[in-house]
Fold these 3 entries.
Entry 1:
Amino acid sequence: MNLLEKLDAAAAARKALLPNGVGAFGIPIEEIFSATEARIGDRRVLLMGTNNYLGLTFSPECIRAAHEAIDKEGTGTTGSRMANGSYFGHRALEKEFADFYQCSSGIVFTTGYQANLGTISGLVGPGDTVLIDGDSHASIFDGCILSGANIIRFKHNDMADMEKRLRRLGDNIETTLIIAEGIYSMLGDQAPLADIVQLKNKYGGILLLDEAHSLGVLGKTGQGLVETTGLLNEVDFITGTFSKSLCSIGGFCVSNHPQLEQLRYVSHPYIFTASPSPATIASTRAALELLQKGSHLRDKLWSNCRQLYSQLQEVGYQLGPDPGPVIAAVVATPQQALLLWKQLLEHNIYVNLILPPAAPEGKSLVRCSVNAAHTTEEIRYVGDTFAKLYGAISTQT
Amino acid sequence: MTESNYDEIMKLLCDRLSDLTNADVLITPETNLINQLSIDSIKLLNLIMEIEDAFDISIPINALTDVQTVRELANLVHKIKTTSS
């Protein structure tokens, strides 16, 4: 099979899962009306598949900051920070993230994906070990691959399995990076951080926590899982993204380890890419300020999360273990997931369809992302529609 | 690690692969895990976890990219077991 035939085979496998040209992935969005509504084809749909957790995509503060930055600094930096230098905004945002997490330093990356890629591949290399959760995001996995380190995976959130693997590492623990996530993107569950920290303190290793989905969502000031658990000082490196609660694009890593700064000189995903645009940095700075002051947004978000979770749970959908902004209905087959996804769209609700192998353990998921801008009525409508479709989905084979 | 340990690894692998696949397929050291046994990635990862527990080792998942046959998997397990003991 030649290179192009391999792609043909992959395309055939995709078409087998999605017959009749169903465009579930990368669906064309014709118009965006607000943080919660858009037009897909001729339908005005409710957006339940974005990661806009605090609903800030149209916040006047962020939009104004982005406009001003474009007017003042132009549309792009046209190169990497190593070559083209660091703008005031890049440095300011790094300081603001470091201050937010009470850390000595921070680095901003061009995407959240690159934040994990760059941090992990900068911290570990061939001969080192990364111990990762089985449900880790692709950016974590790809960062591990890029690093060349030995990748050892423990069963998702299974502390007995994690401990077994820590024990087996023996002296290699000295060069081991443990990685977990504040909220996992597939089922929306949280890492048992207190247990992970306890094991790290017992066996050793360096701990990196990715707060991509938990930033802005968990904790009084929105720091994430480190804040709700009170374990900020026990985590060595925190990464996160701007593309969820902060409504732009980019990523960060903060730490109290002075060695973090060295990543600027060894991390290819940091060095060999264009730096974030002035507008991106400016809107992110504005959003970070809103996020810290946004306890009312978190209250509304969590009220929405609990409402939808309990509605779906009452109907009988299999969900992740706890309510949260990511609420995924686990169904038995890809066909059921596809049917549910299509039916929801016909009811003007856009959610995410996640099929094997993207979903963990061969599961098929229909995933909702709740946000603070959804009204109580919108959430109720989504819950009611899921309930209406439950019978048809359950009997579909 | 002694030769008998290697044989033990090979026997465990063949036994478990027989359980996982069509009974008509003869498992030999040269059997290709993907092409001949059609083991999907989830079954393979579950099998790896069983092997890890049986020999009290952790197999890096990136080391598996070089593994195609039962013999290559046995060699990998043997190598890790030897270096960890």
Entry 2:
Amino acid sequence: MNAGQSASFRRLFDEVGPVDAVGIEERVAKYTTRSIKKSAKLWGLKTAVTMVDLTTLEGKDTPGKVASLCQKALHPSDDSTVPPVAAVCVYPAMVRHARRALGPGAKVRIASVATAFPSGQTALVTRLAEVRRAVADGADEIDMVINRGAFLAGEFAEVQDEIAAVVAACGAATLKVILEVSELETYDKIRAASFLAMSVIRPGDFIKTSTGKTTLNATLGNNQVMLEAIRDFYLDTGTAIAMKPAGGIRTAKQALQFLIAVKETLGDAWLNNKRYRFGASSLLNDLLRQIEKERTGAYQAPYYFSEAAESY
Amino acid sequence: MSRLPITKTPKVYVGGAFIRSESARVFPIRDAVGHFFANIPQCTRKDLRNAVEAAAKAGPGWAKRTAYNRGQILYRLGEMLEARAAEMIEALAMGASSPRIRAAAAREVTATVDRLIYYAGWADKYEQVLGNVNPVAAPYFNFTVTEPMGVIGVIAPDAAPLLGLVSLLAPAIVSGNTVVALASESQPYAAILLGEMLATSDLPGGVVNLLTGFRKEIVPTFATHTHLRAVSGVATADERKALKLGAAESVKRTHLLKAEEKTDWFADRAQSLEAIHDTLEFKTTWHPIGA
């Protein structure tokens, strides 16, 4: 990092405030010690279901696979007390297939990862065209990646200008800004990037941890840094920004710990799918498995739920 | 110079690691003369849940091993027990000085090693005996082949706490199943020591998971857990009822011996091909003969 870059980071850290990394780790370690049982657990599990962005982001995605994902999103379980998920999250080419499967005005929203996901390494004009096309095809929400190269080089104005251009391209669609925390290296930079994004997006837009395509994804620590950024931004400006951790959240137990973090950091106003989401593909199955365990009292085999149909 | 005693904290062997119970609770056991011997982990249904997860994770890899390799590993487990026989005899006798008790413990350890060798031998042979090419009236083959069931629950008896446990788990793992076993409640220490031998026997972590604790806290979960494909063991009349009701609900096999009837674990009939058969699924498939 040259002198110019470190000076611009220093100015930004002074402006948004530093992060006490040890304090964050200590704080989130406590979240895993809460005892959530019975009716509170069931409430948490079902709330988590309503917050899931059921995701498929693979090269081998097909219209048929997306259509079955949409059915699962609308009706996750035979148990009619289990609500539908918040959204399906697909690549832009799959948006029109998702729209056909869900129908217009469906309860489940369609999110799409536009802007040359996951690297973001194409020309801005290409990324904006991708966003417009996804919205035109029926996407309700756009998940964009920030320009990490520009951010790490200290070109903060460029990062913000690009986000602002995507906001404009989104029109009525909700925007989620992926910081890709694993490439930002420190909690200080995650907090700084959160503030850069929050100051150009609209109320109700999201900041999101990760693409899920790198080794390190959403952790309670990253989540906590971003939740505290959202809290401080809200107290400063009155603008409520939403949050989406994504990648690596596979178990119901993890999901409940993330919800505890939301409850204890931002309060009940954020405990709904307008303000908090989980980006995940296999989490839903584990949530359904634990809901069934609460209903029947018997531990369930994972192969009773879809996408885990190996012989063991 | 006097030396402080180095006492051992017994831990259970689950998922290839030595762990305390999830609740961190323990219960004391006493040696043959009534002195405090050790605190044993008091596992509960949550430990059973975690052990089943570990067993399920280990399962595909274990089932994919060649039959020959599984036999080698079971044989090596026999070797480990043979080499540490004196320690195991001590664990079974629990400090008793009576020659009768010590001889009985030695006999149990020897029989356990022999039982492991017996099933090790079957590893690459049971398929020839139990599988089949079925007679058909057209130009194709019709095969019946065996497959392991998955995760098997084992409930060990109090009589012959080591031999009974091994006699129940060895025929299950020989075919590629994985096992979650509940050790004898009154004499759990042999199972703790067996775990330490399993860890040095090339057996992949999670193939055998050994829990200690109170039957009344864990047996009901053996009955209801839908991820267990079968339960074999020794149970009282009440436990058998609970296990069979739970098994009917969760569609699992049960092979239950009656706790109120004496089982001779040393007898030849305590080891059999039938015991391997009990935890196998049979798949029948056809194949064209060709020109």
Entry 3:
Amino acid sequence: MENILTWISAHQQLLYIVILMIFVGIEVIGHVPSVLHTPLMSGANAIHGVVIIGAIIVMGKAENDNYLALILGFFAVLLGMLNVVGGFVVTDRMLEMFKKKK
Amino acid sequence: MTQSILTICYLFASITFILGLKMLSNPLTARKGNLVAAVGMTVAILGTIFLYRDEETGNNLHNYGWIFSALIIGAIVGTLAAKKVKMTAMPEMVSLFNGMGGACAALISIVEFLHISHQIHNGADAAYISAIRPTVMIILTGLIIGAVSFAGSMVAWGKLNGKVKDLSFTGQNILNLLVLATTIGLAVWLVVHPEQRWMMVVILVLALCYGIFFVLPIGGADMPVVISLLNSFTGVAAACGGFLYDNKVMLTGGILVGAAGTLLTILMCKAMNRSLKNVLIGSFGASAQTASGTAVQGHHKEISVADSAMLMAYANKVMIVPGYGLAVAQAQHICHELEELLSQKGVTVKYAIHPVAGRMPGHMNVLLAEADVDYEVLLEMEDANDEFKTCDVVLILGANDVVNPAAKTDPASPIYGMPILDVELAKTVIINKRSMKPGYAGIENELFFKPKSSMLFGDAKKVLQNLVTEIKAI
């Protein structure tokens, strides 16, 4: 129990970010028209690809002879990159079609 | 110095994520918003690769060869997959990419857990074990959510492209809850006894099973809602990584998507006038079986292509109601051709877009925009419902549940309460479908048996091509 309390006070900055981001996240997309639901979902999908940063850190820290960590990390970076690049490109392709034509 | 630059990179990326999401929710700025977020992401990734320093050892990252090869392969495959995919298969693609993110989060957790258990087995003292517990908790949270998101997204992907069928049996919900409870119970146990490393494998397997069981019974029509929910799960899994590495950009991005994704899920449910609980627990298929008394039988009448062409060519106003049938038949271009042809003949042509027509909200808009259909003639549901009474002909192209009057009249119907397009207000309704088979929700549509309605059977693309030929000949 004590551990948890120490951990909370040690990470209070992060916890504040969590609380604020929950409200920001809800606020920024509050008025989205239903037309944009799919592209917005896809865009958000690309943004959570930020998890790749964790994968890069894992990979970069792994010891040279720890093959299990290297292989798992390699796949983590690969899949994270798929999420990021694929997500942004797909979203762009969807939105490309919303261009106003005169 | 490098640390401060990295901090600024992360700060910049966080701002672009918030701004990008904000811009994505407005049609005028959406595309730029996506680009803004992409730039932020690039900065954050490059910053991490070159500027990150381990806090304990102060070392730079290494294994650049591995990192770059993974990045390059991921980027090439991702771009190709995203560029090649057909517009109709977009929803599957989003689900697939979401699953990749979930898997990435789960893999990170696995490696970090192995690292910790390695330390413990190399003779760490009790103080270390007790201090590491909150970290283990975060790791396991990321592992479970990531794995559920991955497995669930894969099933959703399979369902949308027809490879996986709905599967539901009695007691499924109880089984699901049991699996989830066991997973969480074992995770708590592992936090208390972090030295039992084999338990991590059990938890991983259970979480994957839960992801599969969780999505399997949910009907295909509800897949967008599920994908959106899994999307927000992956966001939370990414945020766990933020706690793990004390990394604010992962936390910001993850929680932002977690919150926005949850709200988006609720908005999508609202567009279908259903509660999230209803979507997750009472699947469409399951409730359709219990409400067996709703089957409507009667006679439907058919109409020929030539008659339909005549009706439309001499109408004042035609409203087209596109549905998934249009999407699978890839008929958006020929549909636009029909619209232009009719306009040349002095017919006012508009489209009535139901918010959940197709497989995803906004699916029809994207598809029709691809075929150069003018934004102005796409009517949202409320506006369309005001205009139906002035329409001579309504042409329904492969839409079913969104025009089913049972949603208004039959409280026993599984779609009861969902707002629909009131096509019956128009003078004539022509329904193009491939057969009389019920639509995605698996329920009969009494609209087909109404005196005003005529069925025009056939693949949407072929039927439209024939219509265009006929109208040209008039």
